[in-house]
Each structure stands twice: as C-alpha cells, then as structure tokens.
C-alpha cells in the first residue's frame, strides 16, 4: 500500500489539451450517443503512453476520452488531439502496444 501512495505522490502530471487549443468558441464539442472504445496516446512531461479508453465527445480536431490511468488506477478524462486516437477493433480485448 505504501508503494502505491508513493507512486501517486511522485507521479508526473498528465498533460491534456488546454481550452485555447480546443477553441470551443469556434469548434463546438459534440457528445457521442454512446462511448466508443478507442486507443489513445496520453502525455506526461517525460513520456507518452498508449491507453485503452472510451471516446465520449469530439470536435473537428480533438477527442475527449475517459480512461483508467495505468499506474494509479484512477479514472481520468480529458481532451487529446484527434490524431492521437485510433478505434479499438470490435470484439477484441487486446492490450495496446507498449509505449517506446
């Protein structure tokens, strides 16, 4: 348990898109009728990792995802660039490839 607390305290903060990058005044978000399974790249200051997520909304340039943050097992959500997201194959529960 102490190890998990230490990981939580020492972890890097997740970097998601800012309001300025989303430009919601000119590019209004649209919610998906139902969340869609996807894989998405999320960024930290020193690395990027590919996670299994659910796409819950989108704009012309970005996707809002919900996912379980791998190290600390906390559900997170935020916006990533559209190019960072790929659909998950239906019927397959494979793990995303490891980040490099």
Brief synopsis:
This protein is mostly beta strands. The chain has helices at 2-10, 19-22, and strands at residues 30-44, 47-58, 62-69, 74-81, 85-87.
Report on the architecture of this protein.
This protein is mainly beta. Helix content is 13%, strand content 46%. It contains 2 helices and 5 strands, in the order ααβββββ. It has helices spanning 2-10, 19-22, and strands at 30-44, 47-58, 62-69, 74-81, 85-87. A hairpin with a 3-residue loop joins strand 2 and strand 3. The radius of gyration is 14 Å and the shape is globular.
Instruction: Provide the low-confidence segments as ranges.
Output: 96-100
The percent of residues in helical segments reads 10-25%
On the 0-100 scale, what is the average pLDDT? 84
SS-derived structural category: mainly beta
E-strand count: 5
Rounded Rg: 14 Å
Name the beta content range: over 45%
- Biggest sheet features: 5 strands, antiparallel
Number of helices: 2
Distance between the termini: 28 Å
Per the principal axes of the C-alpha atoms, what is the gross shape? Answer: globular
Lateral arrangement of strands in the main beta sheet: 4-3-2-1-5
- Helix/strand order: HHEEEEE
Q: Layout of helices and strands, plus pairs?
A:
Elements: H1 2-10, H2 19-22, E1 30-44, E2 47-58, E3 62-69, E4 74-81, E5 85-87
Antiparallel strand pairs: 1-2, 1-5, 2-3, 3-4
Features of the shown structure:
single chain, 100 residues, mainly beta, five-stranded antiparallel β-sheet, 2 helices, globular
């Amino acid at each position: 348990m102490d190890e998990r607390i230490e990981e939580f305290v020492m972890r890097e903060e997740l970097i998601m898109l800012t309001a300025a990058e989303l430009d919601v005044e000119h590019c209004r978000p649209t919610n998906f009728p139902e969340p869609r399974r996807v894989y998405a790249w999320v960024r930290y200051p020193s690395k990027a990792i590919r996670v299994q997520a659910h796409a819950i909304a989108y704009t012309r340039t970005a996707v809002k995802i919900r996912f379980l943050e791998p190290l600390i097992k906390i559900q997170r959500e935020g916006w990533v660039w559209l190019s960072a997201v790929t659909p998950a194959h239906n019927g397959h529960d494979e793990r995303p490839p490891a980040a490099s």
